[in-house]
Specification:
alpha+beta, single chain, three-stranded mixed β-sheet, three-stranded antiparallel β-sheet
Length: about 290
């Protein structure tokens, strides 16, 4: 995980959104909807709290065990150490049963962020065991951030985001708003409100902006919840049988056999339904039932 601490400006917005969405789809395909539902509860703040009075190494081991348990890795034992390095943290992905995590020495004095660093690295172990990965370091690290967040431990990574006029800190590869987006996608599925957990005001702001982007996913045609202007544009595109390059849907065929394809707002799996009808579609990957005015 990169060492995002210093005076450098933090990247904002949604530059990695396509990869983020692909990661959510890959997670659902690998675990199944039932598998994802096993992570319905996020890791509680009390389980990863780390005070200055607690022994450094024993406390780090305790937090690591809590995250191992949360991520359903009962056979994985984490050995946590601290050293000077360029990155925030690294993990040795061997065959197990022991995994060695090294944290940057600066976490000795920033214990509130130890859980965030460990969450990302322990998710690497989970993905290693699931044999789930993306080609290329950047995309694979984005996948790790997304899975950490979607499975209930990534709110720690967003809460580690702090920024003022003199310095900034951000852990992970996603922007703060992208972390907020994934948190919001998870919240929609599990009826969760992570906002009380944030100790960082900037993290809360990023969560709200990410939530706004996530809400837009469920209000795009041909979903019945789409707004009037979007439905009007969709009806025009359907009449001509073609969609603009930036449209979230595409048309196939013509006449009575015409169909429209669009991403599931939950898992982003591509779905196809008959065009020109009001239908109820069920996603074959995440099982979500969608009302469509196609």
């Amino acid at each position: 995980m990169p060492n995002g601490s210093g005076a450098d400006a933090v990247e904002h917005g949604f530059p990695h959104l396509a990869t983020v969405r692909a990661a959510i789809t890959a997670l659902y395909r690998r675990l199944s909807a039932d598998g994802v539902r096993q992570y319905a509860a996020s890791v509680p703040a009390t389980a990863v709290a780390f005070s200055d009075e607690e022994d450094l190494h024993l406390g780090a081991q305790r937090v690591a065990r809590a995250l191992v348990h949360h991520l359903r890795l009962p056979e994985a034992r984490m050995i946590v150490s601290f050293r000077q390095m360029g990155h925030a943290a690294t993990v040795e992905l061997a065959a197990g049963p022991e995994y060695f995590v090294e944290l940057n020495d600066r976490f000795r004095g920033h214990r509130r962020d130890v859980g965030a660093a460990l969450a990302h690295e322990i998710t690497h172990v989970l993905l290693h065991r699931l044999d789930l990965g993306f080609p290329g370091t950047r995309d694979n690290e984005i996948l790790t951030d997304v899975v950490t967040t979607y499975l209930g431990a990534g709110w720690l990574l967003l809460d580690a985001f702090r920024e003022d006029g003199m310095s900034s800190q951000k852990l992970g590869y996603l922007t703060p708003e992208e972390f907020g987006y994934v948190l919001a996608k998870r919240a929609e599925v599990f009826g969760e409100d992570p906002s009380p957990w944030f100790t960082s005001p900037r993290a809360y702001e990023a969560w709200t902006r990410g939530r706004e982007e996530a809400v837009r996913d469920s209000r795009r045609p041909p979903l019945a919840a789409a707004g009037w202007a979007a439905r009007h544009r969709y009806a025009k595109d359907r009449r001509y049988g073609r969609a603009a390059a930036d449209a979230p849907y595409a048309f196939e065929g013509s006449g009575a056999s015409a169909r429209v394809s669009f991403p599931c707002p939950v898992c982003r799996q591509r779905l196809r339904v008959p065009a020109g009808r009001r239908v109820r579609a069920r996603c074959g990957v995440c099982g979500t039932v969608l009302e469509c005015d196609a």
